[in-house]
């Protein structure tokens, strides 16, 4: 009788989850586990890594996952603590021989795994968070082109668009008896004003309505707008926790193209999802170097003086456009790509702030925080990533003129309380 633990990480779904599908084939009993980081841990800058928007989205997503697991006569078991403190004990208690989980190629997550391996835990990882599988790439990621355009051209030249998703398992081996660490029980879901609720069911219905309303057709023209719901896809909310896979989205966009025809909008959605893949794959090549203060550059290490950080983060810099962005971020846990670029550039270049604190604040604030994309984009703007053009300083006054000529966005988010 083989007992396995399935460790859900940023893959809170059953559809197109090769790791759990494999576990179903290999096990007689599976204990599905989600591990929460210990409460109250602060980052190097003195604030929590996970802020209220992401906490809520995670809660909703876990509740949805639990419902799906229960429909298959299984359940979700949640624990708090460090992996090395929880798993070895748990495995012993239930007689588990191994842990299966998704592979995350970022330093802290890799460290969690190597510590477990170092303790003699058998652990099997599966790479499954990109639109293109590693085996479908026309190059080894360790030798991939550094520049995005060259990366994209090679992918397009090889004629690969996405890797096909797989269905959810129809059957899940039951949880073993004797789980002496009790499940945390039902979570109380707070009321939220956000139209974007966590969970893979919501991810699928959001994608459905996005396609039914033919929004891909206008995506390329609207993607730099700042107000309203429909100017961009908002897929990032669900992609960040893996409530839906990028392969599933790409496959459904592909079906849409077969039905309605391909256009600039459908291509551009794929193009942006490819950026997401790119920021993942560069981790195979550069690894920890992406987490150095100087990144891949030879630029001086920015000073860690948190000086004006309070003004930037609370949206009281005095620049109405930037302040509006920071207010939107704080209120909703979301910011358009354009505004992310503008507030990041303002922090790095106009305020001479340390890009690492900016990135850490986004980690706290964004409901759709994704370590690969956040790190990659901050490095890109700071001129410390792979971009040969160096940093991207935005002229904020010009951006306001181009993207908010009537001041609608500024009025919306700079309302007096
Ligand atoms: C400083 C900065 C920090 C960022 N931090 C994050 C983050 O933590 N999490 C995150 O998901 N995205 C991040 N992005 C990328 C991008 O802003 C968001 O993915 C996008 O705004 C999400 O909204 P959407 O789903 O409506 O995007 P759409 O415009 O509809 O794009 C579709 C999908 O393509 C991908 N995508 C789009 N733009 C990018 C990009 N520039 N880089 C990587 N993938 C992209 C996303 O998965 C997105 O869901 C960051 C960008 C910047 C400039």
What can you tell me about this protein's structure?
By secondary structure, the protein is of the alpha/beta class. The chain contains 17 helices and five strands. Strands 3-2-1-4-5 form a five-stranded parallel beta sheet, with helices on both faces. Helix 13 crosses helix 15 (371-382) and helix 14 (355-365) packs antiparallel against helix 15. The longest helix is centred in the middle third of the chain and has 23 residues, at 264-286. The radius of gyration is 22 Å and the shape is globular. Residues 223, 232-236, 239-240, 269, 272-273, 275-276, 279, 336-337, 340-341, 344, 362, 366, 368-370, 373-374, 377-378, 381 line the site of flavin-adenine dinucleotide. Flavin-adenine dinucleotide binds at residues 223, 232-236, 239-240, 269, 272-273, 275-276, 279, 336-337, 340-341, 344, 362, 366, 368-370, 373-374, 377-378, 381.
Radius of gyration (Å): 22 Å
Decide which structural class fits the backbone. alpha/beta
User: Which residue ranges are poorly predicted, with pLDDT under 50 across at least 5 consecutive positions?
Assistant: 185-189
Number of domains: 3
Listed once per kind, the bound small molecules are: flavin-adenine dinucleotide
Give the termini separation.
61 Å
CATH topology group of the largest domain? Rossmann fold
Number of strands: 5
Overall mean confidence score, pLDDT: 94
Strand order within the widest sheet?
3-2-1-4-5
Helices and strands, in N-to-C order? EHEHEHEHEHHHHHHHHHHHHH
User: Which strand-content bin applies to the residues?
Assistant: 5-15%
CATH architecture call of the largest domain:
3-Layer(aba) Sandwich
CATH class of the largest domain: Alpha Beta
Number of helices: 17
Main sheet overview:
5 strands, parallel
Q: What overall form do the CA principal axes indicate?
A: globular
Q: Helix share of residues?
A: 40-55%
The CATH homologous superfamily of the largest domain: HUPs
